[in-house]
Design brief:
The chain is an alpha/beta fold. 25% of the residues lie in helices and 26% in strands. Strand 17 and strand 18 form a beta hairpin.
């Protein structure tokens, strides 16, 4: 609830109390304000719950910066792997939908199928009494619900009419999220609570062993939703005992003979059928063919990805391809757009690719992004990742919220102008004020993207000359976007005759005064357990590669130890440089056979484990097949990369320094 409405309700409550004390009735218009008719239905209430309108209005859209493309892009579409906060990235995708850039083969705009497997954890490091811990758990629960609800609201907007939403949860939060989904989609659009049953070796003597997850399924709107229940892989398989009864075969498949039970027939049951009668008395028998399966139900017995599974890639929370195969086959058609907002190990895009769907996948974790990237480049054609190699269709890796300024600075002017407008959520609306060219609007105010390619620098005199030209016709404020180095003054804005000229500097972050929420950085995990924590970022920042110095130590029997002598993160947060030491390390990722072009993730060492090993990582000598690339990731998502040549991984090698 925004502050204006909070104040209004506060005033109404004070006045209502006075009326109640004097015995007077509450005016009808006050009752409507305090108890809106549209809120007469039940809903889940918790602290921090905002209105849908606020969430849609306040969520910042961040532009996509292309990092690398795999394969040759098509003219109309290429698949998208996005690193960044999914809420902000989805707001950008929503703009793409409105611009007609997300269109399915049937002509519907938006995403046809959404599958999300959000983090279930609400873990907090809190010590206190049992009551205090219970209270803290409730706060964590409320924060998780609003974290998820914000994303569900945007996802609903992203869905095409008749699109399907699958939300994968465990026993802790399913019941709460069901109520939220009823509020967002409408209870009449609830389709199923799918129970995914699996086997694990956990054993409890205190409660029934938990051997299932829940997947809540909704559709958007009144349009007919896709449900391909007759497709192989969606239909349920027959039991072996049933299949054994169908031993005969013709061009139409396997069948059994059944009696018609007509007058004069000696047949009393299917067991009494003599195959000879099909020729002598065809009117007595009929061929009963074995179908592809029977109608699917809402509980699925699908094995988890265990230690010996072919598709296993050692990523926490990895889901089996068979599970996603069933969902994608049933609720989408070839060419439809499938979206996964929590990429994790990349199961959803991998299966979408195998089933000829287009896909968009995103994650706030670099480990998830590199895991998914590798998976898409090493696909096998069958579900379960068996069979022949499958070359993925073109896809592009994007940054959304953390940008490489050097690449931005090298953009042609028109591309720079467009990105600058997107970065600060400005509408691309060129217009003139007293003959002076403006590029767009932000919250109703004019925006000028300064052409630093031609005009050099912006001084206070530049602003004074601009004001002399346009005066108060520009309104009470005007925004000037330019590279940080183009501004010759340090103030956030210069004021002239009541008009504020704001300096929006790139690569500095946004001026907090102009945004309703403070910026927060992308945060990367430093141990395996932290991967399933809820993380979000607000706003945007720019890449500052950490500085790293290493020492190659004497080889052991099966490993080559490498000591991280120096790690210095220089993240730029809210426009200010923050220098941190080893405590800012998130993880070290390794490619044991770097091909000189694409980082191919083989191993990840988490910072907590590295710290316990006295800031050493140990490379497996068996795994080293060529030059080794090391990616040092800080907790804000910045990377430093180093390539160590294979012939230098010897006792004579002493040290190496990180390269950007």
């Amino acid at each position: 609830m925004d502050k204006k409405r909070q104040q209004k309700i506060y005033e109404l409550l004070k006045r209502s109390l006075k009326l109640a004390q004097s015995g007077e009735e509450l005016p009808a218009e006050w009752a409507r304000e305090l108890f809106p008719p549209e809120r007469r239905e039940y809903e889940l209430v918790y602290n921090g719950k905002e209105t849908e309108e606020q969430i849609l209005a306040d969520t910042m859209a961040v532009p996509f910066q292309e990092i690398s493309t795999f394969g040759t892009n098509g003219v109309d579409w290429h698949n998208k792997l996005i690193f960044g906060d999914n809420l902000q990235a989805m707001k950008t995708l929503l703009q793409m939908k409105e611009d007609g850039k997300l269109v399915n083969p049937d002509g519907t705009h938006g995403v046809k199928l959404v599958y999300i497997d959000p983090p279930f954890s609400t873990k907090r490091d809190f010590r206190g009494s049992q009551d205090q811990k219970a209270y803290q758990d409730k706060i964590a629960g409320a924060e998780f619900l609003e974290f998820l609800r914000e994303r569900l609201i945007i996802l609903k907007q992203l869905l095409a009419e008749g699109g399907s939403m699958y939300v994968h949860l465990d026993w802790k939060k399913t019941h709460y999220v069901k109520v939220l989904l009823d509020e967002i989609f409408g209870e009449n659009n609830f389709l199923n609570n799918i129970v995914w049953c699996y086997k694990t070796r956990t054993f409890s003597k205190k409660y029934w062993n938990r051997k299932h997850d829940d997947i809540l399924v909704y559709k958007k709107g009144s349009a007919l939703h896709t449900f391909n229940w007759k497709v192989k892989g969606v239909l349920e398989n027959y039991a072996e005992a049933t299949i054994e009864k169908y031993k005969l075969k013709d061009e139409n498949g396997y069948y059994r003979l059944c009696g018609r039970g007509i007058a004069g027939s000696p047949i009393k049951s299917a067991k009494d059928v003599d195959p000879k009668w099909e020729k002598t008395h065809p009117e007595w028998v009929v061929r009963n063919y074995l179908g592809k399966g029977f109608a699917p139900h809402d509980y699925w017995n699908i094995e988890i990805v265990n230690q010996s599974a072919i598709e296993r890639i050692d990523y926490p929370t990895q889901k089996p391809e068979a599970l996603l195969g069933k969902i994608i086959k049933a609720s989408s058609n070839k060419g439809d757009i499938v979206l996964d907002a929590f990429a994790g190990s990349g199961t959803a895009p991998a299966v979408a690719e195998k089933l000829n769907r287009r896909w968009i996948s995103m994650d706030i974790g670099k480990l998830a992004i590199y895991t998914t990237q590798k998976r898409m480049l090493t696909l096998r054609e069958n579900i379960g990742n068996t069979g022949n190699k499958l070359k993925a269709k073109p896809f592009t890796l994007y940054n959304a919220g953390l940008y490489d300024f050097e690449n931005l600075r090298n953009l042609p002017w028109e591309d720079w102008r467009f990105f600058a407008l997107q970065l600060f959520e400005c509408k691309d609306e060129p217009h003139k004020i007293h003959g002076f060219q403006m590029d767009g609007k932000r919250q109703g105010s004019s925006v000028h993207v300064f052409n630093h390619f031609k005009e050099g620098h912006i001084s206070s005199q530049t602003i004074a000359d601009l004001h002399a030209s346009i005066g108060k016709a520009v309104g009470d404020r005007c925004f000037i976007i330019a590279p940080r180095g183009a501004f010759l003054f340090q103030e956030d804005y210069l004021e002239m005759d009541g008009v504020r000229y704001y300096a929006l500097r790139i690569p500095y972050s946004f001026i907090n005064e102009l945004h309703q929420r403070e910026f927060s950085a992308l945060v990367q995990p430093n141990d395996e357990m932290a991967i399933n924590e809820t993380v979000e970022a607000v706003g945007f920042d720019f890449i500052q590669p950490p500085q790293v110095e290493l020492q190659l130590m004497a080889p052991k029997k099966s490993t080559i130890p490498i000591k991280i002598k120096k790690f210095e993160s220089r993240a730029r947060l809210k426009g200010k440089e923050k220098i941190s030491k080893h405590d800012a390390l998130s993880m070290v990722m390794v490619d044991y056979d770097y091909n000189g072009k694409v980082f191919d993730l083989d191993k990840a060492f988490y910072a907590n484990a590295i710290k316990d090993n006295k800031w050493k990582i140990e490379l497996s000598t068996k795994e080293i097949k060529g030059d080794v690339m090391l990616v040092f990731l800080d907790i804000y998502g910045n990377e430093a990369r180093m390539v160590i040549e294979q012939n230098k991984l010897t006792p004579k090698a002493r040290c190496a320094k990180a390269k950007k």
